[in-house]
Amino acid sequence: PFLRLLEAQLQDQRREHEEEVEALKNQVDAMKEEMEKQQQAFLQTLQLSPEAQVEFGLQQEITRLTNENLDLKELLEKLEKNEKKLKKQLKIYMKKVQDFEASQAVVPAERRWHERNMQVAVQRKEKDFQGMLEYYKEDEPLLIRNLIT
After folding, report:
1. Within this chain, do residues 87 and 56 fall inside the same structural domain, yes or no?
2. Is the pTM higher than 0.70?
3. Mean pLDDT of 90-104
4. Has residue 91 been placed in a domain?
5. Where are the beta strands (DSSP E) in the chain?
6. Quick one: which of 76, 75, 52, 72 has its CA closest to 64?
7. Does any domain span residue 33?
8. How far is 138 from 88, CA to CA, in rounded Å?
9. Which residue has the higher pLDDT, 78 or 102?
10. Cystine design at 52: which of 48, 108, 117, 126 (Cβ 3.0–4.6 Å)?
11. Measured between alpha carbons, how far is 8 from 5 in angstroms, rounded to an integer?
12. Both 35 and 80 in a single domain?
């Protein structure tokens, strides 16, 4: 059983490795094709007159900049869409804050006073010290004498 498990794992790893190698071979082939295209374009450019070389170079640069502009335009559209979404969320949250503040302003003064007293009572309840002793520094000798006796 253990040997079969190891064999199965080895076969899985071999299959994954072969798939990776195949993907890398395809990638290398694609790069070779791209390099051959660029070499052909370069050789053609060298055969052109200097003016034609400049024109070809300008054409290539225009194409590159056009593609870059399209990518940037797409990114800008995504960012604008995200901005609109965030503005909508901000409006919703601002409305919730205003509603909450309005509900707090409507609360009668005596109810707020009662709530403050409740908070104070809660604070006092939380201030329950067990095993602690509060005393003034000058009462320390008296306290020690009483503890000993």
Report:
1. yes
2. no
3. 89
4. yes
5. none
6. 72
7. yes
8. 64
9. 78
10. 48
11. 5
12. no
Closest CA to 34 of 26, 19, 102, 121: 26
* Cα Dmax for the chain: 115
Average pLDDT in the chain: 84
Q: Which two tokens stand for residue 90?
A: 């901000």
d(CA 141, CA 124): 29
Kindly report, residue by residue over 15-53, the tens digit of the pLDDT: 999 999 999 999 999 999 999 998 988 888 788 788 888
Buried b (16+ CB within 10 A) or exposed e, 126-140: eeeeeeeeeeeeeee
- Position 68 scores a pLDDT of 95
pLDDT of residue 137: 83
Tokens representing 87? Answer: 């503005």
Residues spanned by the domain of 6: 1-47
Least confident of 22-26, 59-63, 75-79, 136-140: 136-140
- What Cα–Cα distance (Å) separates residue 121 from each residue in 37, 104, 118, 126? 82, 21, 5, 9
Label residue 56 exposed, middle or buried (CB < 10 Å: 0-12, 13-18, 19+): middle
Residues 33 and 13 placed together within one structural domain of the fold: yes
Number of domains in the chain: 2
